Predict the structure.
Amino acid sequence: MERIGDPPNPETVTLLAPDLVIAPTVFLEIYPEQMEQIGKIAPIFYITFEQDPIYDIFAKIADLVGKTEEAKKWIQEYEAEAAAARDKLQSSIGDETVTIFRVEKGRLRIYLNRNFAGYMLRSGLQAKAPEAVAAEIEGNIFASAKEISLELLPEYAGDHIFLIVRDEGDDKAAFEEIEKSGLWSNLDAVKNGNVHRLETDKYYGSDIVTIRETMKEALGMLAP
């Protein structure tokens, strides 16, 4: 793939000579000048992330490019895989809960039902969430994350924790400080060896390929 930059570089887009550009609605807010220029190169179809990534976003884009039947077949295959994965997960961990926890310097977040494995975990595998996490999702089904203080972690932590932290720089140092705390070592997931590290770049997206492939990988962590 040709990287077009962030913010997107209109000159690079011009060289790619697209017939169509698909972009998130948030780009209209944060990159208005660039999107105005790109709109002169090709028509832009804007999508919002406040909708289901498979049954809404994927289906709409498939219709847009004349691939409706191919999308339906992909969804059928995905649904069969997801159903089998849910059965295996239920047999392995039952009603044990799972949390996605990200550590950055100066910011701690619990991921919900969208990116960073959220959709895959909640809608694909349908892993049970702790009550505090479930309440956040119920309040906004496609919310990305909830920022918390370290003191609140026991309230949001599940029997299993998917941990996201870059293995370098300030983020790594921030997590090393957390690891030294009694609060971290007393979490059930930590004591029982149920902390699973996720690769930051691999798990970030909520596109169909990321959802499907990381579901298989995450299942292997939770139900080896």
